Amino acid sequence: MAIQTPVELGVMDDTLGTSTHNFTVPAGGVPLGALLLVRGFTLSNFAPFTSVTDTQSNSYSIDLTTAISSPSRSVNIASCVVAHALTSSDTITIHNSGTFACSASFAYVTADSGWRATPLDKTAGSTNTTSPYSSSSTSTTSQTQEFLAGLVEVAGGSISITPDSPWVSEQNTFVQFGGDTLCTTYQIVSATGAYANTGTETGTAWASLIATYESVYTPPVLLGQPDGRRSTFGPF
């Protein structure tokens, strides 16, 4: 029932001031049943992601939005459990309110046992202007087996972002149009807890977000005697 390492699909850096931003799915596509993650920002704190769609009519949710007031940014995490597989002929579209440039990272994650129909569990997000960064902690996660998706967006030109262990950096991309850096991170956990997306950065204003997702998981059951005492003889 393991959760697998995420597969990076790529980054979209749309410098055009429009309300829709298209990403073409690369070769290999996105398989049926995968958790598809869209993490990115728009160049205005008044223009969050309003929806995400694709050419196979999968259903996406906007899981978390956090705004930076100066410089103006809207930072977002969206997701879907893929009901219709995507191929290289498909497109994923981010919709935002207003006409602002947008940058986003795309990845998918599979779980051996699949994902819950509504896999989002906990979220947290925070902003500040000094290092280190932290999303603040989520409330305690609901089950032991979860995928933690992190996003850090930092303004300030040429920037270094270093996630704290055990966070793993997926994509650390300098975004030319805004002079920002977008860094996606993840953890795969096997214990409940209150988790935060943390690390250090060398920029100015930042936003740090975390969203946790539940795979289908059934806790193991110890075999024992009818009165609840564990058997002292086999076989088991």
What does this structure look like?
With 236 residues, the chain is mostly beta strands. The chain has one domain (7-215). The protein has strands at residues 7-24, 35-42, 49-54, 61-68, 73-81, 91-109, 115-128, 133-134, 145-155, 161-163, 168-175, 180-190, 198-201, 206-215. The strands form 3 sheets. Strands 1, 2, 3, 4, 5 and 6 form a 6-stranded antiparallel sheet that branches. Strand 4 (61-68) and strand 5 (73-81) form a beta hairpin. The protein is globular and about 50 Å long.
Short note summarizing the structure:
The protein is mostly beta strands and 236 residues long. Helix content is 0%, strand content 56%.
What does the secondary structure layout of this molecule look like, with pairings?
Blueprint: E1 7-24, E2 35-42, E3 49-54, E4 61-68, E5 73-81, E6 91-109, E7 115-128, E8 133-134, E9 145-155, E10 161-163, E11 168-175, E12 180-190, E13 198-201, E14 206-215
Written as H for each helix and E for each strand, in order along the chain, the element string is EEEEEEEEEEEEEE
Given helix and strand content, the structural type is mainly beta
What is the number of helical segments per DSSP (H or I, 4+ residues)?
0
Question: How many domains, as an integer?
Answer: 1
The coarse overall form would be: globular
The number of strands is 14
Average per-residue pLDDT, rounded, comes to: 89
**Residue windows where pLDDT falls under 50 for at least 5 positions:** 231-236
Q: Give the fraction of residues assigned to helices.
A: under 10%
CA radius of gyration: 19 Å
First and last CA, distance: 21 Å
Oligomer: single chain
Strand content: over 45%
- Largest sheet: number of strands, sense, barrel closure: 6 strands, antiparallel
